[in-house]
Amino acid sequence: MNPRQIVARIGFYTFIAVLTGFFVLPMLWLASAPFDSNPGYAPRVPEKPTLQHFSALFENDLTMGSLWNSVVMSFSCMVLVVASAALAAYALSRVRIPGRDALLYLLLLLSSVVTGTAAMVPIFLMVWKLGLLDRQLGVVLVLSGGLLPAAIFILKDFMDAVPKSYEESARVFGAGPLRILREIVVPVARPGLATIAVWTVVNVWGTYLVPFLLLRDQEKQPAAVVVRTFYDEGGGALLGPISAFSLLYSIPVVLMYLFVNRRYGFRFHGGIKS
Description:
Layout: H1 3-32, H2 52-58, H3 61-94, H4 100-113, H5 120-129, H6 136-160, H7 164-172, H8 177-188, H9 190-205, H10 209-214, H11 223-226, H12 239-263, E1 268-269, E2 272-273
Helix pairs in contact: 2-12, 3-6, 3-9, 4-6, 6-9, 7-8, 9-12
Protein name: Carbohydrate ABC transporter permease
Membrane topology: Multi-pass membrane protein
Organism: Nocardia iowensis
């Protein structure tokens, strides 16, 4: 190995070490700071581990209620997006419509270009006109509508992979379209549905802007919005409550991913992770 190769190898491993530290250090801080009586910005082993930050959170109805609000909104959006996207993707997969593929790409393009931030003013006015302002139902409808185009685009690939011979055999024995969808298509496309479910929950779980603007009552706001309240009167961050709340906030998503991965598995299918 010549000197140039040695320098290149050292540079490569240095880059990998810096990149690994960039992702690992926040995780170490999240694992240690909630149990430290006086946490700082750097991760360290607590000298005297304590649960005082968790005790303060459990006594606060607003923070624990916000976690429940996040669960309710994420679950509602997941059910609405998975059900609507499955029906739409199945219909687009089986019915021949002129310009069908162009329509799908147009929906995906518009959902990517016209983001929730850019369309926030008309969305706010529409929700206000419908009387859904300061109601979680309004937030669920807005978030689900924003996720549906991409969900339909992804699910159509899974619906196309379902063999049509299965459906033709079912029709011979008198099965209708809804029964074929429920008992044949959905079980075969289950990994795709699980992927959309996890993707929807993760997106809704971390959303801040839409619930912040549409929900004025703090008792109705999700955890992603309530976390902004962990500051003192001088504007300084309360690291103890923030770290403990962040740890509780991340647990449901991690458990959901582990459950879905164990039950359905994640693998690459048709160029899309399933």
